[in-house]
Design goal:
Number of helices: 9
Keywords: Actin-binding, ATP-binding, Coiled coil, Motor protein, Myosin, Nucleotide-binding
Shape: flat
Strand content: 15-25%
Distance between the termini: 40 Å
InterPro entries: Kinesin_motor_dom_sf, Myosin_head_motor_dom-like, P-loop_NTPase, SH3_Myosin
Number of domains: 3
CATH class of the largest domain: Alpha Beta
GO molecular function: actin filament binding; ATP binding; microfilament motor activity
Structural class: alpha+beta
CATH topology of the largest domain: Kinesin
Pfam family, one: Myosin_head
Strand order of the largest sheet: 4-3-2-1-5
Order of helices and strands: HEEEEEHEEHHHHEEEEHHH
CATH architecture of the largest domain: 3-Layer(aba) Sandwich
GO biological process, one term: actin filament organization
Radius of gyration: 25 Å
């Protein structure tokens, strides 16, 4: 099953303690000393110590069936099974690299892509859509403390929003990670959430329907514009941001959106003229050729022109699997309007 039905249908909105598989205590209370052993292929392999050898060496029986003699300083302790898929890794009894990787892996296998690490939120990119960002999820996290809900980017956004409104102090959310980690998508989810709660909290006249404000809509529609001119396909990421951006959203005392400012910097200008054969130039070039209407094509002197006719686009890939450049062009034009 996916994150959504397990979260909503089985546990409801109260964030009930999730039951995890495994034999509780098998790691610490059976008399065995469970450890993590470094492995060249799997990074870490679990096992238990069967013998203490000379010179601080340990003989370990690993779960993969192998026996290994390792230095006692090179192994890490394994947490009891009750900590498997822990929501917050700061609560782990033994906090080490192997336990962190193991916990993130188990949660990822269960479509739980968000995990707390103390004050921080860690996300593992699923590289596929998950049904965890709809209006029901906005309502689930709105105004609720972190302790009452499961880890989610909306929880971080809501905490910042509530601190801003209740305390009147500026808030910052830093989204960082390597290429392909999901920075762009999670930034968009933060903006989506803030636009939703700021709109829903806006006082409105009686008998009027709740509609997104024009400012909220403009902020959300800035994304396809920025991505068209500043994102490109790389060997690691089909929608890699090739620039940095600093987004500031201003709110009124009542929590309504008053304006937004987007500062961009460090655009990878060299990509325009030179790129890897397995990558693409900026999206806008491909979107323009795929989606522009005949009238505009004639005005831009593009009649009969294809990707291979331009030095900027013939060097790399023509298309991105699962992405329609024509549709993306239409989204871009709509965003400008």
């Amino acid at each position: 099953g996916t994150f959504a039905p397990k979260f909503i249908k089985a546990e409801g909105l109260d964030g009930a303690q999730e039951k995890v598989g495994g034999i509780e205590g098998e790691n610490d209370f059976s008399g065995k000393r469970y450890v993590w052993v470094k492995d060249t292929e799997q990074a870490f392999v679990r096992g238990w110590v069967i013998e203490d050898l000379a010179d601080s060496q340990l003989r370990v029986q690993c779960d993969d069936g192998s026996q290994r003699d390792v230095d006692s300083e090179s192994v890490d302790k394994v947490n009891p099974a009750k900590f498997d898929k822990a929501d917050d890794m700061a609560e782990l009894t033994h906090l080490n690299e192997a336990s962190v990787v193991h916990n993130l892996h188990m949660r990822y296998q269960a479509d739980l892509i968000y995990t707390y690490s103390g004050l921080f939120l860690v996300t593992v990119n699923p590289y596929c859509p998950l049904p965890i960002y709809g209006r029901d999820y906005v309502n689930m996290y709105k105004g609720r403390s972190r302790e009452d809900t499961k880890p989610h980017i909306f929880a971080m956004a809501d905490e910042a929003f509530r601190n801003l409104v209740d305390e009147g102090t500026n808030q910052s959310i830093l989204v960082t990670g390597e290429s392909g980690a999901g920075k762009t998508e999670n930034t968009k989810k933060v903006i989506q959430y803030l636009a939703a709660v700021a709109t829903s909290d806006t006082p409105r006249a009686k008998n009027t329907t709740r509609q997104p404000s024009n400012l909220s809509e403009q902020i959300l529609r800035a994304n396809p514009i920025l991505e068209a001119f500043g994102n490109a396909q790389t060997v690691r990421n089909n929608n890699s941001s090739r620039f940095g951006k600093f987004i500031r959203i201003a709110f009124t005392r009542a929590g309504q959106i008053a304006g937004a400012f987007i500062d961009w910097y460090l655009l990878e200008k060299s990509r325009v003229v030179r790129l890897n054969s397995q990558e693409r130039n900026y999206h806008i070039f491909y979107q323009l050729l795929a989606g522009v209407d005949d009238t505009t094509r004639s005005e831009f002197l593009l009649e009969g022109m294809e990707l291979e006719d331009f030095e900027y686009t013939k060097q790399g890939n023509d298309v991105i699997s699962g992405v329609s450049d024509k549709d993306e062009w239409n989204y871009l034009v709509e965003a400008f309007h």
